[in-house]
Structure formats: C-alpha cells, structure tokens
Amino acid sequence: MEREDVIAQLKDIINYNNSRLTIDERNLLSIAYKNLTANLRASWRTIDALQKKEALSSTRQQVKLMRVQKDQIEKDLDKLCRDVVDLLEKYLIPAASDGEEKVFYSKMRGDYYRYLAELTRLNSREELGKTSLEAYKFAYRHALATLPPTHPTRLGLALNFAVYFHDIMRSPERACHLAKHAFDEAVTAASADKNATLANLEDSLMILQLMRDDLILWRGELSKDPN
C-alpha cells in the first residue's frame, strides 16, 4: 500500500473516531509522513549539493532544470508539512490524552514546523522557527512532568529538540546542553532501575546512541570555533 493511501485511510479513521488513533495507527501515521518527508528532504539535499558542485561546469539549461526540480520539491515538502501540521493542530493534539500521547503529537508538531523553517525561500524562517520552538517547549515540559527519563518518546523529543537548536538556531552549545542533560538523566535512571531489562530499553538505547553521536559531532564543531 502506498504511503499516501495509508495517510488517507488514517484520516478517515480520525474523522470517524473522534480524532483518536490507537498506538499502532498513530505510529503508522508518523512513519508514513516521516518517510515521505525524508525522501523529499534527501532529494532536495542531493540537488542542492549537485548545484554547488557543478555550478561552474553546468549549462544554462542544466541550471534551469535543477532549479525547477528543486522548486517543485520545496513546494511538495511545504504542502506535506502543512498537511500534517493541520491534522495535528485541529484534531490530534486537542483530543490527545495527557502523557505520552500528547508528547508524541506535540513533538511531531515541532518537527514539521522545523522542516518548514528550513524552506527559507518559501517561508519566514524566523516565524516558523519560533512556532517550532514553542511546540518543542510545550512537548518537553509535558514530557518532564509525565514521562520517565528513559522513555523513548521523551528521549526522541530531547534529541529532535537539540537538533532544532543546532540546525535552526545555529547554537551547538544549546544543542549539546539539552542533549547531554537528557542523556545523563536517562543513564542515571536506567542504572538505578533494578527491573530495567535490555528488551525494555531497546528503543531508548537506540536513541541514546544517536544522541551520543550527535554530541560528539557538535562538540567537535565547538572545539573548532575560534569564538
């Protein structure tokens, strides 16, 4: 089944079920939108890199074709992000129960506003970046109040919030601070929980590995910064 078909079916379920999804349906929705946007963002990066690499050797026709293709990708990505944001703001977040469900959807809202903020030729980076920040802040406050430090949704939120500070705010310092705090809290909590098993922590461990990799990368950037 095509991802677009999955999204269409899940929208029908949302309409017929008072804006509520099961955990499996919610994950399907997240994965479908994530895969579609990831493909578009990867295509955009490929064309952007090609434009820079071949800038001097490309013909006018090649430059024009790359520009047209890049414009279409940006429009498709903008439409897709606004579609999921509309779904989240009108239906899913207002109907979500407190705790993991509300954190999950609020994190998604922050993510897709972050993607919109990256499309600077179509949108106001400052305005959308501010909306993304507000969404992440709301989600993170709620996560701290309702979810344990080792919960994969809380850790995934912390990781993406840190990416926001790095990519949108251009602040590796703040990115490192947030990621390290979440990382240290999770490790401490896991060490203190005698009932924790590798199976229960599998998803969390994967996110912690990604967080550790980003921390190494961002700290490397800070060490090279003369300021």
TrEMBL record:
InterPro entries: 14-3-3, 14-3-3_dom_sf, 14-3-3_domain. The record marks R41, R114 as: Interaction with phosphoserine on interacting protein. Gene3D superfamilies: 14-3-3 domain (1.20.190.20). It holds the Pfam family 14-3-3. Keywords: Coiled coil. Residues 2-227 form the 14-3-3 domain. Residues 63-90 form a coiled coil. It comes from the Eukaryota. Belongs to the 14-3-3 family. This is 14-3-3 protein. It comes from Lentinus tigrinus ALCF2SS1-6.
